[in-house]
């Protein structure tokens, strides 16, 4: 059994595909996750939530979407981020109460305002605090709930950052972490430059039997399989490459099975998924409040249309509830072949070839 066909285990959860959807701030709500699952993602993660917010948010209709879990999307992970270790345990417990099957701890977010508040990737510079957070979460949630961690390969490229990474990485497993996702860029690198897949291979060789997932520069199905094959990681998490292209999971499954790469979805196939996504969002947010979040999804979906620039321009103008139906009627009423989206960052193996 190869890395391309083996099942991925996260604690006591067995997944039938090693290609999963990452947590995406501002995107991976219930609607996106359900669509991804229907199109082949074996597991998805909710957008990152602050521990402080989780403990303070009240159960009101307008807050319904934050910790909502659909019965059809299990298993699903909830991702935590924060600054104070003592808040992580209670916040993790609340996520479990809301139905999340896995608790993921974010030590990778590179956003400046996050780093300035000593959250996310900042914790890679303070191993003691990071390990206390992990310990508190593992102790707070039931033993059958897997705890996982998301990391980048360091705060920067210094030797100190490398040492801190491996200190957190090694001790996290000792504290009971079931899997660690590693992004091949540093925190200060943010999303610039290629992800270092060679580092992911080194990490997986170092980890041995411990479960490691890779992240970074996964913008099409072939890149997912290339990362699995080249680095030996147990799974990969698709982030930006899944926004507006949930078919990436279905395509990755086909390639892993030895089948040819499926053609991009036709316009009718796109229309069906976009309409379903909007319906799920309307149910989650309400007709008025779903306009803004779905406008950005429409913009991303447009990249698969052969006249994507014109379609994108029309999605940008959506301001009223239901206006998206007019865009679908205008651009998706006649079936045609779709196109593959442009790759934002090329596969590192392709650039080095």
Descriptive key words:
two-stranded antiparallel ribbon; alpha/beta; 353 residues; 9-stranded parallel beta sheet
Specify the structural class: alpha/beta
Low-pLDDT residue intervals, each spanning 5 or more residues: none
Regarding CATH, which class of the largest domain? Alpha Beta
From the alpha-carbon coordinates, what is the Rg to the nearest angstrom? 20 Å
Helicity level = 40-55%
Mean pLDDT, rounded to whole units? 91
User: How far apart, in Å, are the first and last alpha carbons?
Assistant: 27 Å
Our estimate of the beta-strand percent is 5-15%
Domain tally: 2
Question: What is the name of the CATH architecture of the largest domain?
Answer: Alpha-Beta Barrel
Question: Do you know the CATH topology of the largest domain?
Answer: TIM Barrel
What pattern of helices and strands is seen along the backbone?
EEEHEEHEHEHHEHEHEHEHHHHHH
The overall strand count is 11
CATH homologous superfamily label of the largest domain: Aldolase class I
């Amino acid at each position: 059994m190869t890395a391309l066909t083996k099942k991925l285990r996260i604690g006591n959860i067995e997944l039938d595909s090693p290609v999963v959807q990452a947590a995406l701030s501002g995107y991976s709500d219930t609607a996106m996750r359900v669509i991804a699952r229907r199109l082949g993602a074996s597991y998805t993660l909710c957008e990152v939530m602050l521990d402080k917010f989780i403990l303070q948010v009240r159960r009101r209709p307008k807050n319904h979407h934050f910790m909502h879990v659909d019965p059809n999307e299990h298993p699903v992970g909830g991702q935590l981020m924060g600054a104070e270790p003592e808040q992580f345990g209670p916040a993790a417990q609340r996520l479990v109460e809301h139905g999340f099957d896995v608790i993921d701890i974010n030590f990778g977010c590179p956003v400046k305002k996050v780093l300035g508040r000593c959250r996310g990737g900042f914790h890679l510079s303070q191993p003691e605090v990071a390990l206390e957070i992990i310990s508190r979460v593992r102790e707070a949630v039931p033993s059958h709930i897997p705890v996982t961690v998301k990391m980048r390969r360091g705060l920067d490229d210094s030797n100190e950052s490398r040492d801190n990474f491996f200190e957190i990485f090694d001790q996290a497993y000792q504290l009971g972490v079931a899997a660690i996702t590693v992004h091949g860029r540093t925190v200060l690198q943010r999303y610039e430059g290629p992800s270092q897949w060679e580092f992911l291979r080194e990490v997986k060789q170092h980890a041995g039997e411990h479960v490691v997932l890779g992240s970074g520069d996964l913008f099409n199905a072939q890149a997912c399989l290339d990362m699995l094959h080249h680095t030996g990681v147990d799974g990969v998490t698709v982030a930006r490459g899944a926004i507006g292209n949930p078919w990436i999971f279905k395509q990755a499954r086909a390639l892993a099975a030895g089948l040819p790469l499926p053609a991009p979805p036709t316009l009718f196939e796109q229309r069906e998924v976009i309409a379903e996504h909007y319906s799920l969002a309307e149910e989650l947010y309400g007709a008025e409040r779903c306009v803004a979040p779905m406008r950005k999804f429409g913009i991303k979906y447009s990249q698969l249309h052969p006249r994507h620039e014109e379609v994108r321009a029309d999605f940008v103008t959506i301001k009223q509830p239901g206006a998206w139906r007019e865009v679908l009627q205008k651009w998706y009423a006649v079936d045609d072949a779709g196109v593959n989206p442009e790759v934002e960052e090329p596969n590192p193996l392709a650039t080095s070839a």
